[in-house]
Design a protein that fits this description.
Helix 14 (about 495-505) crosses helix 20. The strands form six sheets. The protein has an eight-stranded mixed beta sheet with strand order 1-2-3-4-5-6-8-7, with helices on both faces. Strands 11-12-10-9-13-14-15 form a seven-stranded mixed beta sheet, with helices on both faces. It has a seven-stranded mixed beta sheet with strand order 17-16-19-18-20-21-22, with helices on both faces. Strand 13, helix 8 and strand 14 (about 300-305) form a beta-alpha-beta unit. It has 28 helices and 39 strands. It is α/β, with parallel strands linked by helices.
Length: about 950
């Protein structure tokens, strides 16, 4: 590495792994003096045409002077980056800072010339686009604000790279050369382009894992049993449509087959490409396997082997090396310690997992970090896949284990536009990048439901095998932020399946009004109570009595669905009892429910059923966990099932018609009213979020905001040190730049100072102790209000010092009285994992004792500010509760938006607290404020695409 004294220290934080357009990976890093041989070798593999486009003339080889120039950088005014695979260069980019005359320059010059060179074999993979993002981030970090590039008119590929980046640019043509100039400040369009490229690349990388043309199981045992052999048998048993190979280094040379598939001693002996390798060898042999896979051109790995980060510090280091090793060859990893992956598509039929039975094909995408939970979810979905009027199954399943590389974020990118997936269910034990997950979840939830249950949420730390960034936010806050992104948050895997089946089978409700009908009055009343508990608006239950016929159900359901006062329908049913409860009656009831529901396709219908003694095998394959006398075929139920004809009829319908059209009318059944209504309640809230997300609002502009002045003030303050809490005057000055005016408070170290301060401010005044243990604690007597004259002020001062200590301990201040109103608190904090979060609540016990705070991610829009004020449980106090005067909530919303703008515009502002903010019937008063500054991170949300670092 470069160590000369005129060089900047090697910027290791510029190193990054990136996913390319085709789903492969590459490593981006600074070029150093040690790369001379790599650069020469790289250049020799570039075509003459590409060399001509780069240097505008024939340039067959690099001179020694060229090599020196392109490998010696100061990492400030001259920077070069390389994209590498297997340690070798596949592309380079460099910038040179220039002055207004176009000659080499140093800061404060803020323009640089940029140039690329990509090996022909790797052109079209999005390498140049990725390098442009990274060199742009480096340039911004070094104070460069604008790039210039000269390109030959025939070099359409490179012109397109610059044009499609989304930056604001100027274009000119002179002397046969196209000159492009573009600002590096991210724009809405450049961010949209970056996120779209990120989605396509990461989705493609997961698609290569889930839709391989050829699979090798490495570590398949010669005898049945064992992890590797089990996976081999599962892939073969599922009817995998591609080529399948077994690899076992211990095989005799003469053995060419294992378990009915071609067998080899090494993956490199396989004739032809291998897209996916399933690794099930002892942990000490994995590095050799990864090396062979990389050399053979394998695209991805599913590592079932354990013994990595979950086993302790040594295993954690093995895991880091595994990821580095695989990424060096452009491979992505699911695992290690993974359960496997499943794709039920008829075009693939892949079961590369330890699940002995492939789940039913369906429209649900399933992700689980835990293998054990993955088994439980697959089992429950299989049992509950057969409902009253149809079957529901899984499209794809991923169990990521330690998720060292491929994570829930990557799989979300794939499911976002996967035509085979309508609903996403996720079990997460940790969220490695909450900021990105929230962004992806918001986009995914706008297109299809996303249901999440988070395990280990009260443990205070992620599971041992998961390397994640720490967050200072409590779980309740993270959960609230996810809900605001459209995520359906549930607490158990039972609720996960309940909600998933409803969302996969039924349309979203238009509102919270629920009609209830059935043949059991008691079950109807339980359902009614459950609806009220979930915040729904149930109509009085309609009791059809136990003698109700299928025709009665059909008529009542048809009338209820046709009623404009009904948004959703819950049918409660107890099974027919007695010897005459035959198939014909069950089939008639099934047809009654199905035909009535089909007449009004826009309203969801759920069934609540109750098991009776002796009918434990009954009602729905969804709910039964009892052993059966004989195992029915998948998607069917036992002969004595009260709804057996219903199920057979529905399965036939599902088989005879295209899945997408039928899935909307498959009616899910639940064994308890509470479970059905809870799932319906989540669907109602999600539908409301979808409607609101269609009009997301905007971040308003305020003419009186002085963004430039605030930046200059922050730079000056940070020049004093790495991080600091501002004093009162500095806090007021900075907040004032954004139109947030703090009520003036004057220090009163003695009674005479208090009197002088009151004369300055004017009576009436308040006397407050600002010591940490008394601050904002009027209930302890540390605040005296409405002091009308000097006598009252002196008396209050004497009482405070007598009760609580000396002025030095109390730190008293005098403040002019603000109009009476409701005391609130506004906070903004930069969390290292979640990003900038704006919080709001009522001051005092409501927020401190009861935790009644609402949260939004910054930047906050006008619609989000409105909902933030109304999200807390104590919000009625702001709107005239029990005859009180409503306060000025529009002024409060504007304050929230201004604070949001401050922390969004200036990442150096890492914490803001306004407390109390007294909101009066007209206007508000900020009576206390604190601000903390810290240097911004080297790279933030506007930075280039990267994979998590290892």
């Amino acid at each position: 590495m470069q160590t000369s004294s005129d060089r900047h220290e090697y910027p290791a934080h510029w190193e990054a792994d990136v996913v390319l357009r085709d789903g492969g990976t590459a490593r981006v890093r600074p070029i150093t003096v040690d790369d001379a041989d790599r650069l020469v070798s790289f250049y020799e593999q570039v075509s003459d045409e590409s060399k001509y486009y780069r240097f505008f003339a024939p340039y067959p080889r690099l001179s020694a002077k060229d090599v020196h120039r392109f490998t010696h950088h100061d990492f400030v005014d001259r920077v070069g980056l390389a994209a590498t695979i297997g340690g070798e260069f596949i592309a380079t980019v460099r910038y040179d800072r220039i002055g207004s005359d176009g000659m080499p320059a140093s800061a404060p010059a803020d323009e640089a010339e940029v140039a690329f060179l990509v090996q022909d074999a790797h052109q079209g993979r999005g390498v140049a686009s990725a390098l442009l993002e990274h060199i742009g981030a480096v340039a911004r970090e070094r104070g460069i604000r604008r790039f210039a590039a000269e390109v030959l008119p025939a070099n359409n590929k490179m012109i397109k790279v610059f044009r499609d980046a989304g930056y604001t640019q100027k274009r000119s043509f002179e002397d046969g050369v196209v000159r492009l100039e573009f600002d590096l400040e991210p724009t809405d369009r450049s961010l949209a382009v970056q996120y779209a490229r990120e989605q396509r690349a990461e989705a493609r990388s997961v698609q290569r894992l889930l839709m391989p043309g050829a699979v090798a199981v490495i570590g398949a045992g010669r005898a049945p049993g064992g992890v590797g052999r089990s996976v081999l048998d599962n892939i073969r048993g599922a009817g995998f449509t591609g080529r399948l190979h077994a690899v076992n280094r211990a095989l005799p040379e003469e053995q060419k087959e294992l378990g009915g598939v071609p067998a080899y001693r090494s993956v490199r002996d396989i004739d032809g490409p291998v897209d996916l390798a399933v690794v099930a060898v002892p942990v000490e042999h994995v590095p050799h396997v990864v090396e062979e896979c990389g050399l053979h051109g394998v695209q991805g790995l599913v590592v079932l082997t354990a013994g990595y980060a979950e086993s302790g510090p040594e295993g954690r280091e093995r895991q880091r090396e595994l990821v580095r090793h695989a990424r060096a060859y452009g491979m992505r990893i699911i695992g290690p310690n993974a359960f496997g992956i499943i794709n039920t598509s008829p075009q693939v039929r892949l079961n590369a997992s330890l699940a002995p039975q492939t789940p039913r094909p369906g429209r649900i995408g399933l992700f689980a970090q835990s293998g054990a939970i993955g088994i439980a979810l697959l089992s429950r979905l299989h049992r509950r896949g057969g409902g009253v009027t149809g079957v529901t199954g899984v499209s794809t399943f991923v169990s990521s284990g330690n998720r060292a590389d491929v994570s829930g974020n990557d799989v979300l990118q794939y499911w976002y536009d996967d035509p085979d997936t309508d609903v996403v269910l996720m079990y997460l034990e940790s969220i490695g990048n909450p900021r990105k997950f929230t962004r992806l979840a918001r986009r995914t939830a706008a297109a299809k439901p996303l249901v999440v249950v988070q395990g280990a949420r009260h443990g205070g730390a992620a599971p041992q095998g998961h390397a994640v960034r720490a967050t200072r936010l409590p779980h309740a806050t993270v959960s609230a932020l996810l809900r605001q992104a459209g995520v359906i948050r549930v607490d158990t895997i039972t609720e996960l399946v309940d909600a998933g089946l409803l969302l996969a089978r039924q349309p979203l409700p238009a509102g919270p009004r629920v009609a209830i009908l059935g043949n059991s009055e008691s079950l109807g009343l339980l359902t009614y109570d459950a609806c009220l508990a979930e915040g729904l608006r149930p109509l009085p239950p309609l009791d059809l009595t136990t003698g109700a016929s299928p025709e009665d159900f059909h008529g009542a359901l048809s009338r209820a669905l046709a009623d404009d006062a009904c948004d959703a329908m819950v049918v409660t049913a107890i099974p027919a009892v007695g010897e005459e409860a035959a198939d014909d009656a069950d089939a008639a009831l099934a047809e009654a429910l199905r035909s009535a529901a089909e007449r009004v396709p826009g309203k969801p219908v759920l069934v609540v059923h109750v098991e009776l003694g002796g009918l434990a095998e009954a009602l729905s394959a969804a709910a039964s966990t009892a052993p059966q006398a004989s195992a029915p075929a998948p998607g069917t139920v036992g002969r004595d099932h009260p709804f057996r004809a219903l199920d057979r009829l529905a399965v036939k319908a599902a088989d005879d018609a295209p899945a997408p059209e039928n899935c909307s009318r498959l009616i899910p059944a639940y064994p308890a009213a509470e479970r059905a209504v809870r799932a319906l309640g989540e669907a109602v809230k999600y539908a409301q979020w979808r409607r609101e997300a269609a009009e997301p609002g905007k971040v308003p502009e305020y003419e009186d905001i002085d963004e430039k002045g605030a930046a200059e003030l922050i730079d000056g303050l940070l020049a004093r040190g790495q991080g600091l809490t501002l004093g009162t005057e500095e806090t007021c000055e900075l907040l004032g730049k954004y139109g947030v005016h703090v009520h003036r408070a004057l220090p009163a170290p003695g009674p005479e100072d208090a009197v002088a301060a009151a004369r300055t401010l004017g009576y009436p005044v308040a006397l407050k102790a600002t010591a940490p243990h008394l601050r904002h604690r009027a209930d302890l007597g540390g605040v005296r209000l409405d002091l009308a004259d000097e006598e009252q002020l002196r008396r209050a001062y004497a009482e405070l010092t007598e009760l609580f200590g000396t002025p030095e301990e109390l730190r008293p201040v005098v403040q002019g009285m603000a109009p009476r109103g409701v005391d609130t608190v506004v906070r903004a904090v930069i969390d290292p994992a979640a990003g900038a979060v704006l919080s709001f609540g009522l001051a005092g016990a409501a927020s401190q004792l009861l935790g009644d705070m609402a949260h939004r991610l910054v930047p906050v829009t006008d619609r989000e500010a409105t909902s933030l004020v109304r999200s807390i449980r104590t919000a009625p106090l702001l709107f005239g509760w029990r005859g009180s005067t409503p306060v000025d909530t529009p002024a409060l919303e504007e304050l929230l938006l201004r604070v949001s703008r401050l922390v969004d515009d200036h990442p150096e502002v890492v914490a803001v607290t306004l407390e109390p903010v007294v909101v009066a019937p007209r206007g508000l008063s900020v009576l206390g404020a604190s601000v903390r500054l810290a240097p911004p991170p080297a790279r933030d949300d506007l930075g280039p695409r990267t994979l998590p670092a290892y």
